[in-house]
Design goal:
Layout lengths: L3 H6 L25 H36 L1
């Protein structure tokens, strides 16, 4: 956290890059993955979700279609 003294030394500029050091090795100090790796994992999980959602909708369409024929 930047102190008032730190901010005043930088002419009161609160621009984040002035206070946050870039990560050199692609991972933060607490072990988080690099943004690119995290984004790839996010996209993959989204792809899996939509595939499962499509399968669910196909199954429900079959149930609804079957009810219309029986009733």
């Amino acid at each position: 956290m930047a102190t008032v003294e730190n901010v005043l030394q930088k002419d009161g500029n609160l621009s984040i890059p002035r206070y946050v050091r870039p990560i050199e090795n692609g991972a933060s100090d607490n072990g988080d993955r690099a943004l690119g790796t995290a984004w790839t994992a996010f996209e993959a999980s989204g792809q899996e979700f939509w595939e499962q959602m499509d399968a669910l909708l196909d199954m429900l369409d079959g149930v609804v279609a079957g009810e219309g024929l029986d009733g």
